[in-house]
Design a protein that fits this description.
Layout: E1 6-8, H1 21-31, E2 36-39, E3 42-45, H2 46-53, H3 64-69, H4 73-104, H5 113-119, H6 122-134, H7 153-156, H8 158-180, E4 188-190, E5 195-197, H9 205-239, H10 249-252, H11 254-267, H12 289-320, H13 329-342, H14 349-359, H15 368-376
Antiparallel strand pairs: 1-2, 2-3, 4-5
Helix pairs in contact: 4-6, 4-8, 4-9, 4-12, 4-13, 5-6, 6-8, 8-9, 9-11, 9-12, 11-12, 13-14, 13-15
């Protein structure tokens, strides 16, 4: 069905995370020729969608019906996509923070490998390594180039906070991987024991809690981004001595960014503690896994918007700075990406690109420029 673009239409709400019975049943209905499905952009009865795609409906036999519905396919499948998106967001957060460090002449001492070694958290080391790679060749690494010995915490603790995000992305990835390879059946057929065993494997508790924790980590990264926006705003205000010669899109979006963060923060609240008692008191616990995953997906969208605004506001400040700094290879690539995205309608994009490279040169240090550009992408 998936390969033939037969997409079952199922309700988004209906599972409390003690097996995704209702949405899984919606998919199973199409598989047996019932329900509804989208095929080539048209929503059809499930049987008709299968007929047009040349697929023979399933004919169920013993235990097949239970196998099709008694699982957490919706929660797990959605969580797999969310984890992949969160990994990209973690990299994007590093890029935004690195460009803000360049724009504000922040102290790169926070990226020294000794700092991460002293802490011993792999995610922190990975974040610091990535940002250091992005900034490879930056003039900020020269003695006396940084504005101060210690910057505001929204800059100074970036490796720690972004590292925490990476740690919880890894935890969520592990939870998803386990669920993808597990048996959720109840009863469980144990072939070695020749037994059918009543059990609760349909409860994806670790996955649900992992997504709750991941949202908190995402909100912390968003909080740092929003705080850095204030410093970028202040920098722009100090540089503006008259009307800007070109639009400052990041500056215009500062207030929408401020509106984004409260929503992101509120969505970070746990979803796993709120399922009521059901079924005459028998089903008196649920994981709320679908809700936890769905909220995490929403938070990722908000964070992506926030990081995009940070990139634009950092670009605004770099535009306004009278003395153009030598940027790192990856941060220069990020700046060019922002500028080119804004000027897509320009009839001579190549000329724009050349002009940007002349205004913001990249210091070449061995093979670091290419590595930094790759890290930015």
């Amino acid at each position: 069905m998936l390969n033939a673009d037969v997409h079952p239409v199922v309700p988004e709400i209906g599972s409390v995370g003690a097996s995704d019975l209702a949405p899984m049943a919606g998919m199973a209905q199409v598989a047996i020729g019932q329900g509804r499905a989208e095929y080539q952009g048209e929503v059809l009865p499930g049987g008709e969608a299968l007929r047009r795609a040349g697929i023979t409906p399933l004919v169920l036999s013993g235990k097949d019906g239970l196998a099709l519905v008694s699982a957490n396919g919706v929660s797990i499948g959605h969580a797999a996509l969310v984890v992949a998106r969160a990994e990209q967001a973690a990299d994007a957060a590093d890029v935004a923070a690195a460009l803000s460090m360049e724009a504000t002449a922040a102290n790169p001492s926070i990226l020294h490998p000794a700092v991460a070694r002293a802490k011993g958290i792999p995610g922190q080391a990975a974040a610091a390594d990535h940002i250091r790679e992005l900034m490879s060749g930056s003039a900020l690494f020269e003695a006396g180039a940084a504005r101060s010995v210690q910057d505001a915490l929204s800059f100074r603790v970036v490796p720690q906070v972004h590292g925490a995000l990476r740690e919880y992305v890894a935890a969520a990835r592990n939870a998803v991987t386990v669920e993808l390879n597990s048996a959720d059946d109840n009863p469980l057929v144990s072939v070695p024991d020749q037994a059918m065993i009543s059990n609760g494997n349909f409860h994806p508790m670790v996955l649900a809690i992992a997504c709750d924790a991941l949202r908190i980590a995402l909100a912390q990264v968003g909080q740092l981004s929003e705080r850095r926006l204030s410093h970028l705003w202040d920098g722009c205000m100090h540089q503006l001595v008259g009307p800007p010669t070109s639009p400052l899109y990041g500056l215009q979006l500062r207030y929408p960014a401020a509106a984004l963060f409260p929503e992101l923060k509120q969505l970070a609240a746990p979803a796993t503690l709120d399922t009521p008692t059901l079924d005459l008191g028998v089903e008196d616990h649920g994981t709320s896994a679908p809700l936890s995953v769905r909220k995490t997906d929403t938070v990722l969208g908000l964070l992506e918007d926030l990081l995009a605004i940070e990139l634009m506001l950092a670009t605004d400040l770099l535009r306004l700075t009278p003395t153009k700094p030598v940027l790192g290879a990856g941060t220069a690539e990020a700046l060019w990406m922002v500028e080119e995205s804004i000027t897509l309608a320009d009839p001579q994009p190549d000329a724009v690109h050349r002009a940007l490279r002349e205004r913001f040169p990249v210091m070449q240090v061995g093979g670091s420029a290419a590595n930094g550009q790759s890290a930015a992408r």
